[in-house]
Amino acid sequence: MQVHCERKGGKVVKRITEQAQLILRLYELRRETLMREARSFVGGEFLPQTDDELVAIVSKGGKESGFVLQVYGYWDMVCAFVRHRMLSEPLVFDTCQEMYFQYAKIQPHLRGFRRKMNLPEWMQSIEKVVEGSAKGKKRLAAMQASLERMRRQKQEKPADQASPTSR
Hints:
Elements: E1 5-8, E2 11-14, H1 15-30, H2 33-43, H3 51-59, H4 63-83, H5 89-95, H6 97-106, H7 110-117, H8 124-130, H9 134-160
Antiparallel strand pairs: 1-2
Helix pairs in contact: 2-4, 3-7, 4-8, 6-9
């Protein structure tokens, strides 16, 4: 196991333990009841098809807007920790696969959302972490392919489930 060390004022600080503690604390936060419900919504039925749809969901207020903002705010915070070297990118890559899937849902709409909402920095940390490495881009592409399969299955499902009397 490689220990990442940093020199501060002549003192060597072992960051691996701190990072492990932080990633475990972040995992605990993901298990909180309301966060589980928010993650279930964002990981499930939340599937914006356009910039305008993403804007509408976030802008309308209420429970679903709160879920979207809570989950994406959480992941953007995690990525801010990466950008500020509180967590290593490889550790987050290995332990936060869900983040890549959820980011894949909004990534095609980010530019338009930012412009329409006048929020140029919204989700900037998650964007830089996910799209900042070849591994991240590869995982993002795989997640987007999975989402496309899910969309197709969802569109095909009603036809497959037609009642016998309507055939």
